[in-house]
Write a structure and sequence with these properties.
The protein has 363 residues and is α+β, with helices and mostly antiparallel strands. 44% of the residues lie in helices and 17% in strands. β7 and β8 (149-160) form a beta hairpin.
C-alpha cells in the first residue's frame, strides 16, 4: 500500500537548519500526560476495592466471633450434656453424650448442647417453704383405715438415668424444657407428685390412725411399700426407668428412688384425745401402783404385827412407845422392872413423873 502525497512543506514547518521538526515520542509531552492520567484512576480503584475487601472480612470476622465462641462448650462436674446438630440448613439430630467435667470443646456451628443434672436430686413435700419443692406450705393428705385425715411431709431422693438420656430428652426434656431450672422442676412435680400421693394413700388405708401416730415399725413398713410402688408406677407412666436410686453409678443397675416419711401430723382434736387417753392411762397406772404399794405396806405391817404378837407387844404400841406418845404402860405385876419414858425432858431415875414401877398384883 502506497502512501498518499504528503502536503507541501511550508517555511513554518522547517527548523532553523532547514529540516522538518521531529515528532514527539509516545508518552512524552501532553499526550503522555493524558495517558498517565487515564491509568491512575484504574490503580486507585483496585486499591479501594482491596481495602473494602479487608474491611468486609473484618466485619464478617467480628460478626462470626460470637457464633464461633458459642460453639465452644464444656460441662460442669454435676451436669451431663447431650449434643444435637442443627442450624439454618441442617436437620436436628443426635450427635453425642458429653460426660460431666468435660473441658472446652468445639460443639459445632449452630449446634445445641443440652445440660441435665447427673448428681442426686430431691423432690420434697414440706410445710417449710424453704425446703419444699413448691417453695410454699405443702403436705400430702391421706386417710387412715378409721377415716382420719393424716398429713404427711415426705422426700424422694433419686438420680436421672443418663444411659437413657437421649430417649428422656426427646420424650420429655424437649416437652418440658427440662434442661432449664424451671422446666426441670415442673417435670419432676408432674412426674413424682401423683405417684407418691397414690401410693401413700393406698398404704395408709391399711392402718388405723393410732398405729401411724405412735408406731415406728408401721411407718417403716409404709415407707418400704411406698418406695416400691413409686418406682414401679414411674416406669409404667413414663415407659422406661428414667429415674433411679441416689447411689446409681456408671454401668450399675437402676434401683428404686429412696422414699422417706419426714413427719406425720394428725388433726389437733384427735391428737388431744390421744393425749388425754394417755394421761388417763398414766393416772390409772399411778393409782394401781399406789394401791399395790399400800397392799405391800399392809402386808409388811401384818407380818410385823404377827411377829410382835408372838412377843406379847402389838405393832401400834411399839410405834407409840418409839415416838414418845405414850408416857406409861402396864407391865406384868411380877416383873419388877422400872422403865424410863423415852424423850421426857428432865426425867431421871427416881423421878415419879418419868418412871413407872411395877407392883405386886393384888395390892
Amino acid at each position: 500500500m502506497t502512501e498518499g502525497p504528503r502536503p507541501p512543506t511550508t517555511p513554518d514547518d522547517l527548523d532553523d537548519l532547514g529540516a522538518a521538526p521531529t515528532r514527539p515520542v509516545a508518552g512524552s509531552g501532553e499526550a503522555g500526560k493524558d495517558r498517565r492520567r487515564e491509568r491512575r484512576p484504574a490503580v486507585g480503584r483496585r486499591s479501594l476495592l482491596l481495602r473494602a475487601g479487608l474491611v468486609l472480612v473484618l466485619v464478617l470476622g467480628l460478626a462470626l466471633t460470637p457464633i464461633i465462641a458459642s460453639s465452644l462448650k464444656k460441662t460442669p462436674s454435676n451436669m451431663v450434656g447431650i449434643s444435637y446438630g442443627g442450624g439454618p440448613i441442617e436437620a436436628a439430630h443426635f450427635q453425642r453424650t458429653v460426660q460431666p467435667s468435660t473441658g472446652l470443646f468445639f460443639n459445632g456451628l449452630f449446634d445445641r448442647l443440652y445440660l441435665y443434672p447427673s448428681d442426686t436430686q430431691t423432690y420434697i413435700v414440706s410445710k417449710d417453704p424453704n425446703q419444699g419443692d413448691l417453695q410454699q406450705v405443702d403436705s400430702i393428705l391421706s386417710p387412715s383405715r378409721d377415716r382420719v385425715q393424716i398429713e404427711f411431709q415426705v422426700a424422694v431422693y433419686f438420680k436421672l438415668n443418663t444411659e437413657r438420656l437421649q430417649e428422656f430428652h426427646e420424650q420429655f426434656g424437649l416437652q418440658y424444657s427440662a434442661y432449664t431450672t424451671a422446666g426441670w422442676r415442673r417435670l419432676i412435680r408432674d412426674t413424682f407428685r401423683q405417684q407418691v400421693e397414690n401410693a401413700l394413700q393406698e398404704e395408709t388405708r391399711r392402718y388405723d390412725v393410732a398405729d401411724l401416730y405412735g408406731n415406728a415399725d408401721d411407718l417403716t413398713a409404709i415407707q418400704s411399700a411406698v418406695e416400691e410402688k413409686v418406682s414401679a408406677r414411674l416406669v409404667d407412666a413414663l415407659g422406661q426407668p428414667y429415674f433411679c436410686g441416689p447411689t446409681l453409678g456408671v454401668g450399675e443397675a437402676c434401683e428404686s428412688p429412696t422414699f422417706i416419711i419426714k413427719r406425720v401430723d394428725i388433726p389437733s382434736d384427735v391428737a388431744k384425745a390421744f393425749e388425754d387417753n394417755r394421761t388417763s392411762q398414766i393416772k390409772v397406772l399411778t393409782s394401781e401402783n399406789e394401791i399395790a404399794q399400800r397392799a405391800a405396806e399392809a402386808k409388811a405391817i401384818a407380818a410385823l404385827n404377827e411377829g410382835l404378837a408372838q412377843a406379847g407387844m402389838p405393832y401400834v404400841l411399839l410405834k407409840a412407845i418409839e415416838t414418845g406418845k405414850i408416857s406409861f404402860w402396864v407391865l406384868p405385876s411380877d416383873s419388877g422392872v422400872t422403865l424410863q419414858v423415852p424423850g421426857s425432858p428432865g426425867g431421871g431415875p427416881g423421878d415419879p413423873s418419868t418412871t413407872t414401877t411395877t407392883t405386886p398384883s393384888g395390892r
